[in-house]
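Q: Hi! First time asking for a complex rather than a single chain. Here are the components, and I think there are two in total. Is that enough to go on?
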Amino acid sequence: MALETEILERLSATRAAAAQLALCSTADKNRALAELARSIRQSTAGIIAANRADLDRAQAAGMTGALLDRLTLTADRIEAMARGVEEVAALPDPVGEVIARWQRPNGLEISQVRVPIGVIAIIYESRPNVTVDAGVLLLKSGNAVVLRGGKEALSTNAFLAGLITAALERTALPASAVMFVNNPDREVIRVLKRHPEAVDLIIPRGGKSLKEALADSAVPLLPHFDGICHTYVDRAADLAMAEEICTNAKCSRPSVCNSMENLLVHAAVAERFIPRLAARLERAGVELRGCPRTCAIVPHVKPASDADWDAEYLDLILSIKVVDSLDEALAFIARHGSKLADAIVTGDPQAAARFEREVDSATVYVNASTRFTDGFEFGFGAETGISTNRLHARGPMGLRELTTYKYLIHGCGQVRK
Amino acid sequence: MALETEILERLSATRAAAAQLALCSTADKNRALAELARSIRQSTAGIIAANRADLDRAQAAGMTGALLDRLTLTADRIEAMARGVEEVAALPDPVGEVIARWQRPNGLEISQVRVPIGVIAIIYESRPNVTVDAGVLLLKSGNAVVLRGGKEALSTNAFLAGLITAALERTALPASAVMFVNNPDREVIRVLKRHPEAVDLIIPRGGKSLKEALADSAVPLLPHFDGICHTYVDRAADLAMAEEICTNAKCSRPSVCNSMENLLVHAAVAERFIPRLAARLERAGVELRGCPRTCAIVPHVKPASDADWDAEYLDLILSIKVVDSLDEALAFIARHGSKLADAIVTGDPQAAARFEREVDSATVYVNASTRFTDGFEFGFGAETGISTNRLHARGPMGLRELTTYKYLIHGCGQVRK
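A: Yes, that's all I need. Here is the structure of the assembled complex.
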């Protein structure tokens, strides 16, 4: 209860800061971001020391490999973070953008204008650079932000959040517009999700347990959850192209949500395609799991279990299934996909058109890698996350997706008949 | 539990129908709507008989006045309903609309295309025409719909839902795309809100108890809740215009969410403005409640209590407060408004600009009545509701607001670096 009271008091200050920040000019916000970039660079040693404390704790707890790497900040990564802040400062401000404007027959002039959403809470995991990356995107879009990072990065996150607050203070912006919650207790999430009057939106970036913890959230969610992405190599595919696309979709960064987990191959090209792709992927360290027909073609491949078709590996593992038709591929994707990113490789425009129309995913690719599902790759100038929501924003998000709108209506005394 | 099993089984058929309906052509959907309009007209006697059963029950339970009127369907209202269906058929289909299209430097062609949301549940109250009005708007936008009307209109709603289902069947559209829940038990709402895999969105139209029943919904909401709308008559207002606007905002239809509940008047014009407005409103049957300064100007007016400033009367009642400045008006609206529709009456462009910028409401008016917050009045060609949400859709909704989008990406073998 003490925790709830404390959080609600801080949220009340955050709400007030959100109202002020929403009215700040682009120049004001950019000045604060420039100051933050400067102070990140100047504080490199301090950031590394704070990060060292997290790393020591993580190593003592047995963390190794990719996870430890994600947690680590080096001078180069800190410089990249500062540059990232400057890049966000250089982006156009979405606030105030006129989305549409029209006049009604009665003379009313209606404008639909972008405004900030308000107070947005981000719940994220071990990568400490999210504190700065997400923080500045939200500030640039005029939103106050509640940052609740993972317990592994507590010291680093606290240090970075302190730099943001100080930069806001030094540039006379409302310092309470960034609220860092330095408490790994799950109770924090329970408090946040129960107070829609204090928090307008929660952006959760995490796995199943976070999803479950937020299932009954009274605050709207813009989740970034799982990605079970498919590539379907059609009978009319250019197989050399298919090989490049599949290798890229699986191997270029297997730990992210837009990498391929299931590969579907049309039976007419399976015998030609699967052996050469398998050899290439295995050279790249990928473990393959196959349906019975795949295993008949490449007998050394381990059979896939039922669970494999619904697994988000986020790792160098791929399940392969031979299908007899586009219809079978579509049905498979409808059943096993997570509606984030799916691709067809084909030279047949009709197959491509059906795939685009019938696959109900945020991003549907023809002859390209699913790895392009990303704000930068879409040209949004920023990556504010990849929404697995159907509403408000779907797929790659830019700054605009962190705003809502209001209608301004100008009249000269009109009344409704 | 039996109820839950039954609802989930029906929802599973609705989900399958949603996937089919999403791929139906505009012509297919319009043919079904034309058939529905025809069958509504042909079934006028049947609809009136079903409605008679509801009216008899309601009158036996003591219902009178406006409520009873809302429940009543006459031949004229049924004809209006059929015409409404034809008007929706004539509207442009939002599905397939290309919202944006661009090319990336690597040659990828990206299109953002409107698609239906999926399965949308509407929970509404006594007006039975919502069954048809909302049903056809959702069908036109390619969504399957779960209709859960109020207990007062059960017989009428069931009859009308039967007409929709029959029209879908006769035109070979998936009949399960409309699921009518003929059960007034609140348990129905508990089942719907717990199954985000089965229902993509709930649109609740109702009052406080419905809001509370849905507070922990696992399904996203697009609520249509309260409207506490303000009009601020500035010191620089044209008082004759202000009188027309205030009279319209209060009296033209007091039972709806965009009618005025609180009037703020600048002290510099209060003595000239309040007496003449009060006389006019009182002639129109409005009960006035005033702050102490208002009561000093028009002593017969009853003092407002604290609760009055936060009350959504939805009735011929108005609270009036005298303020000393625009700042005081803005602070009052921020505190007591429901962020739906607020208006300023002023001839001062600077006051108007500050009001527009600082009032954080879905619709902000300068010199016009808040009663224009409505899909038809905005020119959307339809009224699919007025969202009190900040996300996805805010304020008056048209067909577009009942859709989401997906990105289609065309390549020629691009892979991500």
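A: Residues 229-372 of chain A form a domain with the Aldehyde Dehydrogenase; Chain A, domain 2 fold (CATH 3.40.309.10). Let me know if you'd like any chain examined more closely.
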